[in-house]
Amino acid sequence: MAAKLPAWAGEMRQVFKSGSVSQFLIHGAVYDLVLYKNSKGEIVFLGLKQFLEQVMLQSFHVVLRYDRGTGIQVVKGLQLFQAFLKSYDEWNGTNYARSPAAIPY
């Protein structure tokens, strides 16, 4: 049985698949729970962060999270992100990849 997404998540997935956006911003009630019917047909509650990372962004190679308290966190794809930063640094003469404090682990 295929997993069933909430209506808003289905809309979000369609927007991503269209290629019109590559990022989004969530603000407000970020600690909400999402009612989700998984591939086994079980109805479960997932925290919003968990739902986004494990369900909605599962196919993405790199996933970043940001909040004012902890800054940017690499949730998935740390090596790819660091390789990107290194290339970015070489092109722009910056120092982001060599600054360990810039990327909390």
List keywords for this structure.
2 domains, two-stranded antiparallel ribbon, 3 helices, 105 residues, single chain, alpha+beta
In short:
34% of the residues lie in helices and 20% in strands.
Structure, described:
It is a single chain. Helices cover 34% and strands 20% of the residues. The chain is of the alpha+beta class and 105 residues long. It has a two-stranded antiparallel ribbon. Strands 3-4 form a two-stranded antiparallel sheet. The longest helix is centred in the C-terminal third of the chain and has 15 residues, at 78-92. The protein is elongated, with a radius of gyration of 16 Å. The model has no long low-confidence stretch (mean pLDDT 85).
Topology at a glance:
Layout: H1 7-18, E1 33-37, E2 43-47, H2 48-56, E3 63-67, E4 71-76, H3 78-92
- Secondary structure category: alpha+beta
Number of helices: 3
Proportion of residues in β-strands:
15-25%
Sketch the major β-sheet: 2 strands, antiparallel
Give the SSE order as H and E letters: HEEHEEH
Question: Helix proportion of residues, in percent?
Answer: 25-40%
Task: Give Rg in angstroms.
Answer: 16 Å
Low-confidence stretches: none
Strand tally is: 4
Count of spatially separate domains: 2
Indicate the mean pLDDT.
Answer: 85
Shape: elongated
Q: State the distance separating the first and last CA atoms.
A: 36 Å
- Biggest sheet: strand arrangement: 1-2
